[in-house]
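Input record (one chain):
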Amino acid sequence: MDKLTLKAMAKINLGLDVVRRRPDGYHEVRMIMQTVKLYDRLTFEKRKEDALTMEANMKKLPVDGNNLIIRAASLLKEEFGIREGLHIRLDKRIPVAAGMAGGSTDAAAAFVAVNRLFGLGLTKEQLCERAVRIGADVPYCICGGTALSEGIGEKLTPLPSAPDCFVIVAKPHIHVSTKWVYQNLHLDQVKEHPDIDGMVESIRRGELSGVADRLSNVLETVTVPKYPVIAQIKEFLGKRGALGALMSGSGPTVFALFDDERKAQSALEELKKTGLTAQAYLTTLTDTTCVE
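The corresponding structure, as predicted from the sequence alone:
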């Protein structure tokens, strides 16, 4: 095999709690991660020249060592002494800097592609052990589906598929720095934490209402006051039939769960007319791997 094309799926956080800040500066979390059917497409093509090159459909994206795709491919290439190269083409569709693990899922695709193209024979678990060096969300993005994520995000417990529903994904005209959000998170001032255990039980019982009622993200305490448009989008969708709406990750993307496709489609069309969003999509949850 000399060429491989993969879909790298986005994620949302049905629940996100921060447990504590560790002495090394990292934050320990408890999150419910969920893959959605919104993806980037990446094509990996082997080259005889010992180099990693990349192109993307968005000019503002780095195509050098600052891109997680290149860093992930380099990690395996160096570890296994691979003396051939790769050319990578990225068709970016997932909103950038949006709290949907767009960079992490692309890096996951790079791990999978290098493993397959060069016949490294690494298991999914072995890939995940290496992936955490690139980013805390990358191991999840290799596995996908519905999962409880703990530690700094690398400790994954697979869960049953979340209840079927329709999902509006809406990114406003802003970018949010994950580093800034965590630096400004004051856990001693957080009065209410997400009910992660209750969310897990609702998923196990297949209760969409229980999932929607427990949507909660402790990082909203930082991001929403700074960017009120996030709350505006949540309120707008809530008034148009959403069972629940939440900011994903560190933001600014908002997602909303619906049990009726026509209602969701109508809400999406109305939302696009408001000017509140730069990108908005209607999609669904999926239990497939983030990379396929």
